Amino acid sequence: MGKKALVVGIDEYPDNPLCVCVNDAKEVASLLERNADGTKNFDVLQLPNLKSRKKLETGISSLFANDDDIALFYFSGHGSRKGEVEYICVPNEYGETDSIRLSEILETIQKSKCKNKIVILDSCFSGGMGDNPFDGMNAVLSKGLTILSATRPEETALEIAGHGVFTTLLCSALNGGAADLLGHITPGSIYALQDGCLGISWVWRCII
């Protein structure tokens, strides 16, 4: 059983380009690929500046299709909100921007047999992912699912000094800032570091 990651960073939006997401995603991928001693960690697929909603949806489905020990999805790019529905945004080959509902992604992940499923979103309005209702008005998250997001459902994400604030702290955590005495890093320890820096201005969802 392995550890797999899909890492997506998008700067090249036709109507509102960004400048930090691809570099942030590359740094996250680099930290996931190798342990501190240089040994292999995650099998990482990077999709920088992809221009296809279908390709992203296929990548997410493939990532969570098997029963791996850990499947991790990281996204850095634009997010949007229409009414009470939150999306991540993907450019397409026609010079337009498509949107994928967070609830659609969550529904795919909910069906996964992976033992541990991790979603990390550095995008505006991304905190709504854990709040999408599947059972009446209650969000039902599957066992082993962790969602880390840069914002609450109604908030925008922040950049500073050429990097996303949330991903900067995430990389600090992965680079040892969230390690225990044995060098182990968990979603809980990442949360503790993030929470200590950002307080309640961001969202974390975890069911184990």
Question: What does the model show?
Answer:
This protein has 208 residues and is α/β, with parallel strands linked by helices. It has one domain: Rossmann fold, CATH 3.40.50. The protein has helices spanning 21-33, 53-63, 102-110, 165-177, 187-198; strands at 3-9, 43-48, 70-76, 79-82, 85-91, 97-101, 116-122, 145-149, 159-160, 163-164, 203-207. Helix 1 runs parallel beside helix 4 and helix 4 packs across helix 5 (187-198). Mean pLDDT is 82; it is low at 200-208. The relative contact order is 0.15. The strands form three sheets. The chain has a six-stranded mixed beta sheet, sandwiched between helices.
Q: Which features would summarize this protein structure in a list?
A:
single chain, Rossmann fold, 6-stranded mixed β-sheet, 3-stranded antiparallel β-sheet, 5 helices, globular
Summarize the structure.
The chain is an alpha/beta fold. It has one domain (3-207): 3-Layer(aba) Sandwich (Rossmann fold), CATH 3.40.50.1460. It has 5 helices and 11 strands.
Write the topology of this structure:
Blueprint: E1 3-9, H1 21-33, E2 43-48, H2 53-63, E3 70-76, E4 79-82, E5 85-91, E6 97-101, H3 102-110, E7 116-122, E8 145-149, E9 159-160, E10 163-164, H4 165-177, H5 187-198, E11 203-207
Parallel strand pairs: 1-2, 1-3, 3-7, 7-8
Antiparallel strand pairs: 4-5, 5-6, 8-11, 9-10
Helix pairs in contact: 1-4, 4-5
